[in-house]
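W.,

You were right to be curious about this one. When I first looked at the sequence I had no strong expectations either way, so I just let the prediction run and decided to look at it fresh. Below is the sequence, 215 residues in total, followed by the output.
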Amino acid sequence: MKKNKITVFLVSFFILLGVSFLGYYYKVSGEQKKASALPIIGNDQNHHISPFSFTNQDGKTITNADIKNKIVVVEYFFATCKGICPKMNANLSKVYEAFKGNKDVMFLSHSVDPLKDTVEALKAYSLRFDADPTQWMFLTGDKKELYDMARYSYLISADDDTAGLSVDQDFIHDKHYVLVDPEGRVRGFYDGLSDEDIAKITSDIKTLIEEKHKQ
């Protein structure tokens, strides 16, 4: 009888141990699945882009509500640029073509020269890339607001490429794209002149799409 009690105790003990192990395994596995392959960029984990209001190439007001729950590729350029912008946008069009029609992905090209980049000028420029204005938006607006979004939301720095740009001493321009996740967090910077980085951002967008649909 005593031996039977010991046997029952040991069986129960190992069953409980097994259940506990399985529970721990699935908890850890779930946490690993939730963990992203991409870093969250900013001073802390709580950095998110700020609310904004700009005008796109169709004259429509675009706000952060329009990109809610979207994966967004951001750049800054100007339409009269003879330097890096044509190459940047030619490369960005390759990324755009890879996700054209995908409702999870949007592209925001902000003007750094809103004085020259009127709605009409941006519309003409966007047609070079056959850009769907509901997915690839060329934005203009108040210069300070455009620049503040670059510096404080998208964390873009300045670059010296001012030829043909009608600006005063305050100038911001950069060759990098910024990748923003559906929660409004910055997840990566990519050199818009680098074929390697074009492949990388395309891959990282796919990663964020997969993560979005697993949630």
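Here's what jumped out at me. Residues 196 and 207 are 17 Å apart (CA to CA). And, maybe more interesting for your project: Residues 17-33, 160-167 have pLDDT under 50 and may be disordered.

Coffee later to discuss?

I.
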